[in-house]
Amino acid sequence: MAVKVQLLDARALAADEVRIAVRAAGVNFPDLLMTRGGYQLRPDPPFVPGMEIAGDVIEVGATVTDFAPGDRVMAQLRLTGFAEQAIASTASVWPLPDAFSYEEGATWFVAATTAWHGLHDKAQIQPGETLLVLGAGGGVGMAAVQLGVHMGAQVIGIASTDEKCAAIEHAGAKAAFRSDDPKLVEAIKAATGDVGVQVIYDPVGGPLALAATRTFGWGGRYLIVGFASGEIPKFPANHALIKGYSIMGLRAGEAVRRDPKLGKVTRAALAQLAKEAVMRPVISHRFTLEEAGDALLALDHRAVIGRAVILP
Length: 312
Fold this sequence. Notes:
Strand content: 15-25%
Helix content: 25-40%
CATH architecture of the largest domain: 3-Layer(aba) Sandwich
Structural class: alpha/beta
Shape: globular
Number of domains: 2
C-alpha cells in the first residue's frame, strides 16, 4: 500500500475529546502491518496510521476539565497519529512528564504498556529471575529490557546486529547475543549458569521462538508479543509438558479495554513509571511527515535501534 501525505478536513470534537498539535509521532510495527492488511486491526484504506503521539493541546471538548490549551501531553491512539493534528479521548491522554521530550513521549506508551502488562501482570516476574528478550534491539523489546532490569530480573537480550547488542547491554542487560549465533542456545544457557531462563518475551516469532524454548528451566512463562519475523511458530506441546512452561498471549491494549479495573491500575502504575523515566525510549531514526513511508520501511528493514519517530 502506498503512503502519501494528504490534506484532510478537521472534524469537530466530541465532549470528552481534545485536539492535539502533534510534535512527534511514534512509529510502531503494527503501523507497518496495518498498511499491508497484516494486523488484527484492519482499517479500510485510505487511513492515517499512527498509534501514539506527543504534542500540545490546542482545543478541548465541552466536558473536559483535566486538560487545557497549551498543555504538553502524550496520547495513545489506534490510528491517525501521523498528522499535524490528532484527536484523542481524554481517557487515552496523559500529561507529558517534565523529564520527557516530545520524541520520548511519542515513543513510550505502546512499548511501556506492553512490557508492563507482560512482565507484571502475565509473567509476574520476580527479582533474580532470568528474562530472555527476543528482538531486544527494537522498541517493544528494549522497553522489556529496561523494565526487567528495573524489576530486578537478570536480563538477556537477543538482537540481529552488534550495534543493537551494544545498546541492549547499555540499557542494563546482563548479556546480549546475536540471533544468528550458531551456538545461541548454548550461550544463553551458559549465561544462566545452566539453570535456564524463567521468562521469554517474544515479539519476533519464527525459528528463533522455537530455539528460545530450549533455554527454559523448569516452569517458565512464554509471552507471545507478536510475529515481527512474519512467521508464526508452531510450539511442540510435548516440550511444554515436559518442561512445565506456560505459553501466554500478550495483547496489552485489548486487555485494558476489556477490563476497566485493570486499565485503571495499569494507568496508575505507568504514570508513576513515566514520572521516574523508567523505560526511557532509545531513538535512532527521525523522519518528517513526508517521509512516513521511509519510516515504515526502516522498521521493515530492521534498521531501527529502539524507536523511530515522525516529526510533523
